[in-house]
Amino acid sequence: MHFYFDGSHFANALIFVFILIGVSLHAQRLAHVRIMITCAIADLALLLYVELRDQAVEDLFEKMAVIPWILWIHVAVSATLLFLWPACIVSGSKIYRGKVTDTGTHKKLAMTFLVFRFLTLATSTLIKHAV
Description:
This protein has helices at residues 7-24, 29-52, 56-63, 68-96, 104-130. The protein has 131 residues and is mostly helical. The protein is elongated and about 50 Å long.
């Protein structure tokens, strides 16, 4: 096993930390909204960076031939986040603008999002150390 600095993995972990900070500030709605929108943009930018990097995905699939299941789980979890981010933003914006007073749907989406976002970080860590 080898350890090396990987900027995208560090960014992934840092974004997750800021997501947790944003979630902890849910009662301070303006701060919560600003942090979470910034995290969404950073997460999407990171995804685009990883996908557009020269043959990064193809190279990874070749290197991960030994345990490809973890890579497929990572891809599935990451793809699910592409739907959960907008769902959380839409439901949260309705609360923020006062159009919805019941926060139950947003809380359920947010908890689902947090689980999937943690799984993304966990699977990327496993992949990083398996390569």
